[in-house]
Every structure is written in structure tokens, then in C-alpha cells.
Amino acid sequence: MQFLYLIRPTRTDMLRTGLTEAESAAMSAHFAYLQSAQAEGRLILAGRTLEADERGFGIAIYNAADAIEAADFARHDPAVAAGVVQAEVYPYRVALISAENVEAGA
């Protein structure tokens, strides 16, 4: 099954004013966590909006056996565990995807 988790910063001005040292460490660990999931074949895609205000959010679309495993994946994200971001998990189904259409370096 596929799932999407949406993350939003818990400190709403984080993207506008910059990350604290603790937030930066948590977000670095978050990125490494997603890279590991990608290497394992669990992560389909991840990214964030470029909004630097309260509208900003990130998503990850990933494979999990069921809703419990999907929630655990989000809960164990280091940025979620540190309270830097909050996550919402949704069942999801990728209908169309084309890796060739993703801009390099975007």
C-alpha cells in the first residue's frame, strides 16, 4: 500500500526566519532518514513547497504494509520525533508518475 505524509513546521516562522541549531540537526536527520527509506525501496518521492510562510509544507509518498506501519514510518522520522515538524498520514495511491519529467537539481 502507498501512503502520504504531510509535514508542517511546528514553529510557523521557521522557514522565514531560519532554523535553529536544533531544528537544523533534526532536519538533517530527517533528510538522511528519507534517503535511507529511498535506498530500501520504501520511499517513492519526497519534497517540499517553496513557500516560506505558514503555507509551507513537505510531503513524502512511501510504501507500507498497512496504516500502522505507515504511521510508524512518520512517527520515527527524526524531525517528527524531535517536535520540529508535525505529520499527518493519509492512504494514497500514485496514479501517474514519470521520473523523466522531474527537473534535475530541482
Write a structural description.
InterPro entries: Dimeric_a/b-barrel, YCII. This is YCII-related domain-containing protein. By secondary structure, this protein is an alpha+beta fold. It has one domain: 2-Layer Sandwich (Alpha-Beta Plaits). It is built from 4 helices and 4 strands; from the N terminus they run βααββααβ. It has a 4-stranded antiparallel β-sheet with strand order 2-3-1-4. The radius of gyration is 14 Å and the shape is globular. The chain starts with a strand and ends in a 14-residue tail after the last strand. The model has no long low-confidence stretch (mean pLDDT 92).
Number of H- or I-type helical stretches: 4
Distance between the termini: 27 Å
Strand order of the largest sheet: 2-3-1-4
- What's the CATH topology name? Alpha-Beta Plaits
> Describe the biggest sheet?
4 strands, antiparallel
Overall domain count: 1
Q: What is the string of SSEs from the N terminus onward? A: EHHEEHHE
Q: Could you tell me the strand content as a percent range?
A: 25-35%
* The CATH fourth-level homologous superfamily: Dimeric alpha+beta barrel
Runs in which pLDDT lies below 50 for 5 or more consecutive residues are none
Q: Helicity range of the residues?
A: 25-40%
Q: Structural class given helices, strands, pairing?
A: alpha+beta
Q: What is the CATH architecture annotation?
A: 2-Layer Sandwich
Pfam family, one: YCII
Family: Belongs to the YciI family.
InterPro entries: Dimeric_a/b-barrel, YCII
Domain YCII-related: 1-87
